[in-house]
Design a protein that fits this description.
Blueprint (H helix, E strand, L loop, with lengths): L5 E3 L2 E3 L3 E3 L9 H9 L3 E5 L11 H22 L4 E5 L7 H11 L3 E4 L17 E6 L2 H15 L6 E4 L5 E2 L4 H5 L6 H19 L5 E4 L5 H10 L4 E3 L1 H4 L8 H9 L5 E5 L5 E5 L2 H7 L25 H9 L23 H15 L2
Parallel strand pairs: 3-11, 4-5, 5-6, 6-7, 7-8, 8-10
Antiparallel strand pairs: 1-2, 9-13, 12-13
Helix pairs in contact: 1-2, 2-3, 4-6, 7-12
């Protein structure tokens, strides 16, 4: 059976694969363009995307916005006007500025999580950009639909459903993460599909549901499509591509990782995060504090004098290949990555494998 397209409003991806956003600076224009060029949806991660290392608070948002606009336009150009999304975390202090930059740069889609994007439509008036919240439950999807339809007379154009096996900061409690078998992605996906169905029927609008977290191959994609998903989001697999914007040492950390190296830590912003264990992780888990000065406050809820280290600086170090002073966020299946390939080869493999398993 031929793989179906992913249709989000008037945007149509011939391959129903959204490349998940990876920050800081792991998925920029290079990776996003390569995925979009192959018929998928490429995503630029907006968090701390600009040269913020020496910026002041006054310059911080301006630098991020300027760089984001440049990255979107570059991705559009390199992909021959393929579909480009931007991921913007609600928790970011420059959230509104990045939304404005996404529109200015010509992005097709805004994907927004790390909090419920309840006010997102108010920042995108007079724009045709598609709005895709990230949720981890049907209840969260319903809250967003109710708020948006009541306040803005608008519904989300799609939902990304992030499961418990995803990488980076996670929308689950530490207790839930200890028992992942109780929260399978299939169950959460069906929960969200059922939650949005009443809004689809009532308002005559198709709202595709896009599961993410632990999806690794065509068999996984076919399973989600069979459940009624419009497509899938994948991030970890795209790290191990030539086009990924991270340093080769970052990619090699994925190749070298064993299953037992993948662990959950408490991030400085008090959220669980899935990472590859290394010496740096071992030290911070044991309570090491790393002195730093922060002049820009990238996260709304971060209090620099109270956290043991700066998560932004640690992730920038990692993206630059300095894993001695940083760590790699990672999905649970990263240990299954065995080689670095091209995005084209990976996309071709995913399509062929999915079609083999579709019934």
């Amino acid at each position: 059976m031929k793989i179906p397209p992913l249709i989000i409003g008037d945007v149509k991806a011939t391959v129903p694969v959204v490349q998940g956003a990876m920050g800081v600076r792991i998925s920029k224009a290079g990776l996003a363009a390569a995925v979009a060029k192959e018929g998928g949806i490429g995503t630029v991660a907006s968090v701390c995307i600009g040269p913020i290392e020496t910026s002041s608070r006054a310059e911080f948002a301006q630098l991020n916005k300027k760089t984001l606009v440049e990255e979107i336009r570059k991705a559009k150009s390199l992909s021959n006007n393929g579909i480009i999304a931007v991921n913007i975390m609600v928790a970011l202090s420059d959230y509104i500025s990045l939304v404005e930059g996404s529109i200015e740069g010509g992005a097709d889609i805004i994907v927004s999580g790390a909090g419920l994007p309840l006010m997102l439509p108010s920042y995108t008036k007079n724009s045709n950009i598609k709005l895709v919240p990230i949720v981890s439950s049907g209840r969260a999807a319903k809250i967003i639909c109710e708020k948006w339809i009541r306040t803005y007379n608008k519904l989300p154009d799609a939902f990304v459903v992030e499961g418990i096996l995803a990488g980076g900061h996670l929308g689950f409690t530490f207790e839930e993460l200890e028992n992942p078998e109780n929260h399978p992605l299939e169950k959460i996906t069906i929960d969200v599909i059922n939650a949005v169905k009443e809004y689809e029927n009532k308002h005559n609008k198709k709202i595709p549901v896009i599961p993410a977290g632990g999806i690794f191959d065509g068999k996984d994609i076919a399973k989600m499509i069979a459940l009624g998903a419009g497509g899938v989001q994948m991030a970890t697999r795209f790290v191990c591509t030539h086009e990924c914007d991270a340093d080769i040492k970052f990619k090699q950390a994925y190749i070298d990782a064993k299953e037992e190296d993948i662990t959950i830590i408490k991030s400085p912003v008090h959220m669980p995060g899935r990472v590859i264990r290394n010496e740096f992780v071992k030290n911070v888990v044991e309570g090491d504090r790393i002195k730093f000065e922060c002049s820009y406050r990238c996260l709304k809820n971060c209090i620099p004098m109270e956290v043991p280290y700066c998560i932004a600086k640690v992730l920038i170090n990692a993206a630059n290949g300095n894993l001695k002073d940083g760590f790699a966020f990672v999905g649970q299946n990263a240990h299954r990555c065995t080689q670095i390939t091209s995005v084209k080869e990976l996309m071709d493999e995913l399509v062929a494998d999915t079609e083999k398993h579709l019934k």
